[in-house]
Amino acid sequence: MIIFSEFAEGITKPVSMSVIDKALSSSESKIVGKDLKPRALSREIEKSVGKKFGIEVTFKFVPSLTKDDMSANAYYDQEDDIEGDPSITIELLMSAENRNGINIDGKGFDALTFNLSKVIAHEMLHKSQASNRDFVKPFKVSFTDPKQEYLGRSDEIEAYAHNIAVDLLRNYGSRKDVLSVLKNFTRIPATKSPDLFAYLVVFGMNKNNDVLKKLIKKVILYLKELDK
User: Fold this and answer.
1) How many Cβ atoms from other residues are within 10 Å of residue 8's Cβ?
2) Of 24, 102, 96, 27, whose CA–CA distance to 60 is shortest?
3) What distances in angstroms separate CA 84 from CA 12, 55, 80, 87, 221, one per listed residue?
4) What's the pLDDT at 151?
5) Per residue in 101-115, pLDDT tens?
6) Which helix (H) or strand (E) holds 37?
7) Would the pLDDT of 40 be above 90?
8) Can you tell me the distance from the alpha carbon of 183 to that of 192, in angstroms, rounded to the nearest whole number?
9) For 95, which of 5, 82, 129, 195 is 20 to 30 Å away at the CA?
10) Is the pTM of this model over 0.85?
11) Count H helices, E strands: the chain?
């Protein structure tokens, strides 16, 4: 069980999810109910967030997705940031069956913007992390498992902690309720936060694991930030 006390370690201040969501929502009239080819959809999303956050939007067809299903990858490029170029790329993942177009309804648009807001906030945190340390590469902790090596990086722990805090608040409704379930965080279902579940699987469901303990501390700090 975790005792929720004050934590000395801080967090990188995130871009407000509401600010990102508001920017994305400006594209609603251009997307909802329209038959858009992938390139046109990417262009409309980029128009809403590209200039404001330094984002480029691309698309990719992946065989694992069925028609009308979508997902997204995102990347932050420190070298582009140093050069003053757009430093975040969002890659919309789509089924090849939607090559000729996709029609997104209001509910689908809400789901899309929520997921994109999380993705953008995640990468914007990486951008702030790099800037805060004057673009010096962070020290890497050595793990033999490549998944543990990736998820065990301090930058990823912090950025995924924000993702997890957003998911848990959305699913449990209040910071008080989230703090309650976090006391036994290894029992939180995958449906409540896929990112938290991924960490639990990779680090063996061990509540005493140092990476998981650091992750949960960061989640708690972001809950406080998101609750403001």
Assistant:
1) 6
2) 96
3) 21, 12, 6, 8, 31
4) 95
5) 999 999 999 999 999
6) none
7) yes
8) 15
9) 195
10) yes
11) 10, 5
Question: Sorting pLDDT into bands at 50, 70 and 90, what band is 8?
Answer: very low
Return the structure tokens found at 123. 């990468």
Tell me how long the chain is. Answer: 228
> DSSP string spanning 120-175?
HHHHHHHHHHHHHTTTPPPPPPP-SSHHHHHHTSHHHHHHHHHHHHHHHHHHH-SH
Contact 164, 219 (CB under 8 A): yes
Element (H, E) at 70: strand 70-76
Domain ranges in the chain are 17-104, 146-226
- The CA-atom distances, in angstroms, between 149 and each of 24, 80, 139 are 33, 24, 12
* Amino acid in position 211: V
Give the tokens for residue 139: 């020290």
Q: Which residue has the tokens 């409704």?
A: 173
From the number of C-beta atoms within 10 Å of its C-beta (0-12, 13-18, 19+), residue 197 rates as middle
Residue 71 forms beta bridges with which residues? 93
Sheet holding 70-76, edge to edge: 55-61, 88-94, 70-76
